[in-house]
Each structure stands twice: as structure tokens, then as C-alpha cells.
Design a protein that fits this description.
The structure holds two protein chains of two kinds. Chain A is mainly alpha-helical. Chain A contains four helices and no strands. In chain A, helix 3 crosses helix 4. The two termini of chain A are 33 Å apart. Chain B is of the alpha+beta class. In chain B, strands 5-4-7-8-1-2-3-6 form an eight-stranded antiparallel beta sheet, covered by helices on one side. In chain B, strand 4 and strand 5 form a beta hairpin. Chain B starts with 7 loop residues before the first helix and ends with a strand. The chains are: A mainly alpha, B alpha+beta. At the A-B interface, helix 1, helix 2, helix 3 and helix 4 of A face helix 1, helix 3 and helix 7 of B.
Chain lengths: 88, 262
């Protein structure tokens, strides 16, 4: 019985993960291009903000601001989709 | 910077892991001292931790999978072996019930025969100890399945743990489930513990290490430990495994065995 319960939990979990993934991809897609770019280069590309600024030829301050605005916007978009982003 | 007392413009790069090393050091020092920025950073990290869900490949890194498969390969088939008596035993498992029945029959006929009674007692003890082993091993198998589910679904972040000494072959992985603020440590090839000692896990983001718990190693040098973290997990910056006295220590005192940067 425990095994079946675990399996069911796994299936539910997997389904929920897929939903979250879709939500996250959609939120990213809805970010302004410049903000999405710096977030992706940092998070998925592993570049520092200095490297990103150099690569894009943008001032450092602009890159940092885009990161900040991008994360705020992302949070807002995710919350609008009902994905809870809460503090502990 | 909007406020010279705070580090608003560095929080997003920090949460995205995009600070230069010297900045990171400075930001961490600031976060340790400034509650407002610490909360902001935790909030930003909450968003960036969700970015993991958007990772194009949901498959865990090859290294992680290989590590997991190696672990499952060596452990799951190993369990029945552990439950079985050595083959040199006179009561091989297939005829154990027959032996048991025969023993009982003989025992009835030879009531009072001390050797037979001793034998029965011994068999009972062995059966009891096997049941006990099953009881201990079954939850472990469930835990392995959960670990696999965590990994395959990319639920967890993985952090490699490295040996503190070059002579050591010890290795480990830390799986972090940010959603549940839960951490699972899996280690291999740990040196056997001297009597009266135990391994202890430590986490920290400043100079105050937090004890994640203590654990022993199995005969093959492997170990796993699940921990629920008291603080928001992304705040922690490092993890250590040390050897401590059996009762555990309040701060790390013994030999550093494994280290990891979170």
C-alpha cells in the first residue's frame, strides 16, 4: 500500500513539476527581451554581470538594473499565474 | 545604488550567481549584517531557484545520474545478500522451513534436551535479527526511490562534495530541495570511523556553523543523511563533514573530511 501511495505521489509530483515548468517558460517568454537576456546569460550561461556587460557592450549599471527589474517582473508574472513565490 | 547603506543593485546579480568573486565576498559580509538586504536576497533567490524549472533538459547531469545509478546498482541488489545467511551455514535458505519444522518436531520429542533448546533459541534470535534488518532496510529503499525521483525530475539542486585531503578518495553529493528546504547528503568511500567517533555535517553562511546532523558509514564506506534546514537554504554558502566525538559537537572540532561550496 505504501508503494502505491509513493507511486501516486510521484505521479502527482511529476505532473506538478511539468505545470511549473510551463509556467516558468511562459513567464520568461513574457519578460522584456533585454531583461530575459541578462537573466538567461547569468543563470543558464553562468556569466557574471561584468562578463555580460562586456559581451553585450552595455554599461555595467544597465545590466544590473535589467537583472533587478527582470527578477521583479518575473516574480510578478509567476504570482499572476498563481505560482506562489513566498518568503519563508 | 539607491541607498548607500544597502546593496540593492547587487542583490539580483547575487541571486543569479552573477557576482565577481570579490563582490560575492563583500555581499555575503553585508548580508550577514543587514537584515533588510538579507530578506531581499532571499526573496530574489526564491525567484531564481524557480528558474531551475525552466531548464531545457529535465535530465540531471550525467555525472549525477552515473553516481546515482552506481549507488542503486551497488545497494539494491546488495540488500537480499545482506539478509541471507552465509552459504556455509547448515540451513541454506531454501530448506530453512523444513529445518525449522524438523527442529520443532525433534524439540517436542526431546523436551528438555538442552542443546536443542539452545539451537531453537539461536534460530529465533537469527530470525528476529533478520526481521530487524528488513525493518531497517525497507525505509532505506524508499529513501533511494525518493532520491531518484528528486534527481530525475530536477527537483533538486546538486552540489558535489570533495575530499578535504588529497589522499582521500571520499566523495559526496548534496541534493537540495529548495521547495521543502530539505537537503540530502550522499557520500561514498568515507574512511571507517574509529570507535567513539561519528561524522557530523555542518552548514554556514557566516562564521557560525550550523550542525546538520550526525551519521555513521556502512561497511562499503557509503552513507546518506536527510536534513531539514532551519534557515532559508540559499543563504548557506558552504558545507563541511567532520569527524566528531560520538555525541556530536557544538562546533566543528575534528578532522575535516568533505567540503562543498553551495
Amino acid at each position: 500500500v505504501q508503494g502505491i501511495a509513493d507511486l501516486r505521489t510521484d505521479v502527482e509530483e511529476e505532473a506538478w513539476l511539468r505545470v511549473r515548468r510551463e509556467m516558468m517558460l511562459e513567464a520568461l517568454a513574457r519578460l522584456p527581451e533585454a531583461q530575459r537576456q541578462v537573466i538567461e546569460l547569468a543563470y543558464f550561461g553562468g556569466l557574471t554581470h561584468v562578463e555580460i556587460a562586456a559581451r553585450l557592450g552595455d554599461p555595467l549599471g544597465t545590466v544590473k538594473t535589467r537583472m533587478r527589474l527582470g527578477l521583479l517582473k518575473l516574480r510578478e508574472l509567476l504570482q499572476a499565474q498563481g505560482l506562489e513565490v513566498t518568503m519563508r | 545604488m539607491t541607498d548607500s547603506d544597502h546593496i540593492d543593485d547587487l542583490i539580483a546579480p547575487y541571486a543569479l550567481g552573477a557576482l565577481e568573486p570579490d563582490e560575492l565576498e563583500w555581499v555575503e559580509a553585508h548580508l550577514a549584517a543587514c537584515e533588510r538586504c538579507r530578506l531581499e536576497a532571499a526573496e530574489a533567490k526564491e525567484v531564481t531557484s524557480l528558474l531551475a524549472y525552466a531548464t531545457p533538459a529535465q535530465t540531471p547531469p550525467a555525472r549525477v545520474r552515473a553516481d546515482l545509478m552506481r549507488r542503486l546498482d551497488t545497494r539494491i541488489p546488495a540488500q537480499p545478500e545482506r539478509l541471507r545467511r552465509p552459504s556455509t551455514s547448515w540451513w541454506a535458505s531454501w530448506w530453512r522451513p523444513v529445518a525449522l519444522a524438523a527442529s520443532l518436531g525433534l524439540a517436542v520429542m526431546l523436551v528438555g534436551t538442552a542443546s536443542m533448546l539452545r539451537q531453537m533459541e539461536q534460530m529465533q534470535q537469527e530470525l528476529h535479527s533478520e526481521r530487524e534488518q528488513t525493518r531497517v532496510l525497507a525505509p532505506r529503499a524508499t529513501q533511494e526511490a525518493q532520491l531518484m525521483s528528486m534527481l530525475i525530475t530536477s527537483e533538486a539542486d546538486t552540489t558535489p562534495l570533495r575530499p578535504a585531503s588529497e589522499q582521500s578518495a571520499a566523495s559526496g553529493l548534496l541534493l537540495t530541495d529548495y521547495r521543502q528546504n530539505k537537503v540530502v547528503l550522499m557520500a561514498h568511500d568515507l574512511p571507517a570511523l574509529a570507535p567513539g567517533t561519528i561524522y557530523q555535517v555542518w552548514f554556514g553562511y557566516d562564521n557560525q556553523p550550523f550542525s546538520g546532523g550526525v551519521f555513521r558509514v556502512e561497511l562499503d564506506g557509503s552513507a546518506s543523511l536527510e536534513m531539514v534546514m532551519p534557515d532559508y537554504m540559499p543563504l548557506y554558502r558552504w558545507v563541511w563533514v567532520t569527524v566528531e566525538p560520538e555525541s556530536g559537537s557544538a562546533t566543528p572540532t575534528g578532522t575535516l573530511t568533505l567540503t562543498g561550496t553551495l
